[in-house]
Every structure is written in structure tokens, then in C-alpha cells.
Amino acid sequence: MAHTIRDKARLLARVRRLKGQAEAVERALEEERGCADVLMLVASMRGAINGLTVELMEDHIRHHIVNPDNEQDAARASGAKELIEVLRTYLK
Amino acid sequence: MAHTIRDKARLLARVRRLKGQAEAVERALEEERGCADVLMLVASMRGAINGLTVELMEDHIRHHIVNPDNEQDAARASGAKELIEVLRTYLK
Amino acid sequence: MAHTIRDKARLLARVRRLKGQAEAVERALEEERGCADVLMLVASMRGAINGLTVELMEDHIRHHIVNPDNEQDAARASGAKELIEVLRTYLK
Amino acid sequence: MAHTIRDKARLLARVRRLKGQAEAVERALEEERGCADVLMLVASMRGAINGLTVELMEDHIRHHIVNPDNEQDAARASGAKELIEVLRTYLK
After folding, report:
1. I need a labelling partner for D51 at 20 to 30 A (CA). Which of A89, A90, B84, D22 fits?
2. Which residues of B touch A59 (CB under 8 A)?
3. Does residue A63 surpass a pLDDT of 90?
4. Chain D interface, best mutation among C35, C55, C58, by max D CB count within 10 A
5. Counting beta carbons within 10 angstroms of the beta carbon of residue C48, is it exposed (0 to 12), middle (13 to 18) or buried (19 or more)?
6. How far apart are CA D67 and CA D78, in angstroms?
7. Which residues of C touch A34 (CB under 8 A)?
8. Over 80: is that where the pLDDT of C4 sits?
9. CB half-sphere exposure, D2, CA atoms < 13 A
10. What ipTM does the predicted assembly reach?
11. What is the number of structural domains in chain B?
12. Contact, A54 vs A91, CB < 8 A?
């Protein structure tokens, strides 16, 4: 990674929340809560994973391919910007 | 839940593996490993979540709706069996 | 299938809309429209496929397993109702 | 788009196959074939849409952002190559 301190902090916060969600699923199973409740917790983990994925992909595009905010080549900047938007739509 | 002891043990093993995968992502971010590596770890978490989901859904169908293995009504048994197969295809 | 006339009409309307969306993607490719536009059209097809899937699964549960609206066994009725809700959350 | 003639032909072949799959789902519904059969046809459409998506994203990266095969900047080339691999893993 080695992106920015701020990116790193944000990604770490996301992954720690994900770990907390896994622990909530574990507790729900141990306490033998209803299947539907457990499945809803797992569905929210899936949403969190998609959110983490799109953030990692966006950071990768910005830091290792083309950063639309400071790219000189206008066509590349706009191509990278469009890709980030498309990925957000796909993984939301 | 309150399914069977065996189901519960298997589901708990899955969710603990998932927690371990979240910890691996956390370490990878802290050690500033490459984006592509982190993304591959996250992709494998997503696969594990799909596996857990399909297992929870299958258990729910068997224990709270119709268990194809001991249902008297043949049409319902076959309907439940088909649904389980379809869910496995969708979430594999 | 052989569900109800009304279910069938609704499912056919969905799949014809899907065919229309595929034709829109085809035209966009032929007219060499921008990648991002084409990708957005394909993303909306994916949403439509998820919608069709959840409707087919719900119809399958209601007509071939347990219909929560007229099931005598209250536990089964509630199990089927919960599964339908969970599938809607997963595939929305 | 306006990529290459060869890319365009390949994408058009994919989208026409997708249209054919939508027509197969339509026929299956009209002939009142079993739910499970229809759901399997819809599942294969979903797979085809993921395949089309990853191909469109890869073409977009190559033609509008960075083409790893002829990029001078080695870091960008490798960043784009990694992203294409990750997208293939996610959308396969």
C-alpha cells in the first residue's frame, strides 16, 4: 500500500469494523439466535466487504495508475475518473 | 438457530476462519503490503462469506421450512432440494 | 413453472425488459459510445437479473415449498417468510 | 468505445450471446418449464454479464487509462496489470 497516512487509517478502520462484524456473527451463532438474524448480520458483512473493495481499488487506481485529480493527460484523467465511478456503481 | 450440534460447530468454524481472514487483511494493511495482495485477501473473504451464507440458508431451509431428507410430501421435498441446489449455484 | 397467470405475465415482462436492455448494450457498442456509458447499461442489466432471480426464487418457495400466506404450520410459514426477506436483502 | 475492430467484434459477440440467453429464459417461461431450470438459465446469464463487465473494464483500462503492454512508466504498467488481474478475480 504505502499510500497516504489518511488512506491507511481509513482502510484500517473499515477492516476493524469488519472484524467486529465477524465477532457479532460468532456471538449470534453461539447464542443460537434465529437464522434470519444471523443471515442479516452476514449480509451486512458482505456490504462492508464491497465497500472496502471499492475503496482499495480506488486507492490503487489513484496511487499506482492514474490520479484523476493531478494527472496532466486529460484523457487519462477522465478515463480514471470514469472507472472509479463505474466501480462504485458495481460494488455498492 | 438451535439446529444440530454438528451444524453449529461447522458454522462456528467458518465464522472463526472469516475472523482470521479479517485479521490477515488488517496485518497486510499495517505492514503496507501491495494493494493487489490486500485485494486478493479481501476477495477470498468475499468467497468465504458466500460459503457461510449458502450454508446458513441451507440450514434454515432444512430446519425451519422443509427438510428434503425426511419430508413426507414428495413435491415439497423436491422443491426444497431444488432451491438448495440453485442457492449453491448462485452463491458459490 | 405453471404458477399463476399473473406471476407468469410479470416474469415475462421482466425478461422482455432484460432482452431490451441487451439490445441497448448492442446498439451502444455498434455506435461506439463511451465505455463508461456501456458499463452503466451493463450494470443496470445486472440489477435487472438480480430482480428476476429473487422473483423466481420467491415464486418457487411459494408454489413448490411453503406459501407463507396459506400454510397451516405456523413455524413453516414464518420460516418461509423469513427466507423470502433474506433473499430480497441478498439479491437486491 | 472506438477501441479496436477486434475488441468490438468480440464484445458484440458476447452481447448477442447474452440476448440469446434472455430469449432462452423467455421461451422457458412461456413453455412453463420448471423453476429450477429457469433459475439455472438466469444464473448463466449472470455469469455472462460478469464476463462482459470484466472485458469492458479491461478494454477501458487499456484504451483510456494505461495499457500495460506499451506503457513507458513501469510502475503504471504494473499497477494497471495488477488491477486487471484483480478485476478478473472479483468478477469471474
Report:
1. B84
2. 35
3. yes
4. C35
5. buried
6. 10
7. 82
8. no
9. 3
10. 0.89
11. 1
12. yes
